[in-house]
Design a protein that fits this description.
homodimer, 406 residues, alpha/beta, Rossmann fold, formyl-coa transferase, domain 3, six-stranded parallel sheet, 15% strand
């Protein structure tokens, strides 16, 4: 088991009433930086444990998604669960949940009960649309939040290029972004509470998936509001710079080239053996290159199709033109830079032997946190937490288990 | 000018030596939550001010990107700039920069000088590849970090669907993610430094664009490491759930439908007037629906093409099937939920009159931060900061300006 240094969040304890992605991703990030995460799961486990590839009934994704967390089972539908849960709250700095708005209140976790259990508790709610407003009760699907936040429309080929629908960002970006914003909200609130000039009071953080996405939309809203311009998708390109795209290679891969300044473009055309292109009036300066991006990309693509990705990357790197093969999992796993910085690492996992994990982001050299353990089996830490944090005896825990509370 | 409450980060002062997106996005998020952001710009301004649509020579995007920041000009190439900069550091809690690795050291901002100027300073570096390792000096283009982190490969139609290249996520997702992780690192470090049991020391946060992206890749690495499975793109769909996609409408829009459970699917087929589909053996259960997703999407798409997006959304919402029109800027701007929560708001901007801004994420109801002012003109706060924070007199500032330091 790898042991990091403590990490900057050592000493912070967070209760997770999360499931699926958004809430648990928030706590993965906090746990990576050293926070003690207590993940409450129903006895059947977080359903995300069924997602993705399984080995022996165990989810590989969960090895990373659940890492550094202490799993405690609690059947929230049992009448004896609430007092235990509130006692756990009493031992925590913050709580993260991503049930439907109002749901945890129905379990008895009202704002008043939480504040009484732990004065100054920071509570973060993650939901599809937020905790209030006319749409708060709508079902919260990540893809819907992404469509409402605006990223789906823009992640598509340019209008008129194809009849295929706009592409989903390849991962659950809405959920993950909401998790990051929840982490930011929690940390801002605990700093304000605990700091030297802190006010010692709690705050409630309310993150909507749709809003986490909207927050990333650059000039989309200001430009629409002032000029009525509806931003359009640009496919593999960028609307304001050329050439920059992914180009096909002879070995069936994609090479990303970003040569959208005059010096870079001159170096690219020289490496292509077509230096005249740099003087071609269609491509003189970024503005004209953007206007003729389709023609330019055809020329570059015809060249890249004649060599392998490895050859092309070697030639262009020698010519100092920014480029890279478009990485699949295979290239990520063997990337020297990722390995050198511990960002791709082998983690011992009793369920699988060894599992490849992404490292800790951000990297804090003198206090890096780490992967203390991989995603644990359901309830692996129930005894440890109930006895260690709440002082319950073995027989008391056995009795709770027998009654179906755990 | 809108005035929020203080926000949880009121009392935190952050010096930004940022340009373009990643560093400034970090400080936008911190400033939204109340931090005092001092943005150091060269006398010519952050080049991001030239990006996107301009009105009267001013960037609309910057109205949001630069909001809540105090802009101070400083010519870092002038020999008299460093002492001033270090005096400013002395008044700050944290510093964010996104120059090339090592660059700010060449200006004289070495780790030793920074710690001497402000013991316990938290320093966040954002770069393409990170502050060390074999690739640290490579040029940092966002699209390249996205390709290396793995998101570009997965944001594409399924293999064999089209020859078009993988799509760029519609915004600068790598830069923005790096900014969010930098914010998390800074807040974790100031909590550890300033908290009740804080250690009163600074930390160095090191965020790479490529790593910020990699951190979001779900089970991609664990599944490759254990099983050799190279995760593949799924276009508009999700590899593990169906139906969920964007479907064309009669009025040329896209409707997002997420009906990937048996009850939702039954409600969808009933709303379509084709309830027999729910009993069709090809579509019995999620696993079979995923296997026959292309056929299923053709059927659904043939239905959606016969009505407008507004009609479809009304029918499906009545049937309690999660759906939404895929929002462009126009739909975002008029969304009632966004408006109700202040997530789309009109901000008075002396440069433009009124500008539409995204709101503050996360939403903290009892201490919400806010938009105190929009992105300011270059150097708008130079006098205010140099006199207010450093105690310089009017003649001293005038002299610095005359010498070209400001």
């Amino acid at each position: 088991m790898e042991t990091g240094s403590g990490g900057p969040l050592s000493g912070l304890r967070v209760l997770e009433l999360g499931h699926f992605i958004a809430g648990p991703f928030c706590t993965r990030i906090l746990g990576d930086l050293g926070a003690d995460i207590i993940k409450i799961e129903p006895p059947s486990g977080d359903p995300v444990r069924q997602w993705g590839e399984q080995v022996g009934g165990h989810s590989l994704w969960f090895s990373a998604h659940g890492r550094n967390k202490r799993s405690v089972t609690l059947n929230l539908k049992h009448k004896d669960a609430l007092p235990l849960l509130l006692r756990l709250v009493g031992q925590c700095d913050a709580l993260v949940e991503n049930h439907r708005p109002g749901q945890i209140g129905k379990f008895g976790l009202t704002p008043e009960a939480l504040e009484a259990a732990r004065p100054g508790l920071v509570v973060a709610h993650v939901s599809g649309y937020g905790q209030n407003g006319p749409d708060r009760d709508r079902a919260a699907f990540g893809v819907i939040g992404e469509a409402i936040g605006g990223i789906r429309y823009l992640t598509n080929h340019a209008p008129g290029t194809t009849d295929l629908p706009p592409v989903r960002v390849g991962v659950s970006i809405g959920d993950s972004l909401a998790g990051l914003y929840a982490a930011i909200g929690i940390l801002a609130a605990v700093w304000k509470r605990d700091g030297i000039a802190g006010d010692r009071r709690g705050r409630t953080v309310d993150v909507a998936l749709s809003e986490a996405v909207l927050s990333m939309m650059e000039g989309t809203l200001p430009e629409y509001g002032a000029l009525g311009i509806v931003r359009q998708p640009a496919g593999a390109r960028i609307n304001t710079a050329a050439p920059t795209s992914a180009y096909p290679t002879a070995d069936g891969k994609w090479l990303l080239i970003a040569a959208n300044s005059d010096p870079l473009f001159a170096r690219l055309t020289a490496a292509m053996g077509q230096p005249d292109l740099a003087a071609d009036p269609r491509f003189a300066g970024n503005r004209l290159r953007v206007r003729h991006a389709a023609e330019l990309d055809d020329i570059i693509g015809a060249w890249t199709k004649r060599a392998s990705a490895a050859e092309l990357e070697r030639w262009l790197t020698e010519a100092d033109v920014p480029c890279t093969e478009v990485y699949t999992a295979a290239e990520i796993a063997r990337d020297e830079q990722f390995r050198a910085r511990g960002m791709v690492r082998d983690v011992a996992d009793p369920l699988f032997g060894t599992v490849l994990h992404p490292g800790v982001v951000p990297h804090i050299a003198d206090d890096p946190g780490g992967v203390r353990w991989p995603g644990p089996p359901i309830g692996a830490h129930t005894e440890e937490v109930l006895s260690g944090l709440l002082g319950l005896s073995g027989p008391e825990i056995a009795s709770l288990r027998q009654e179906g509370v755990l």
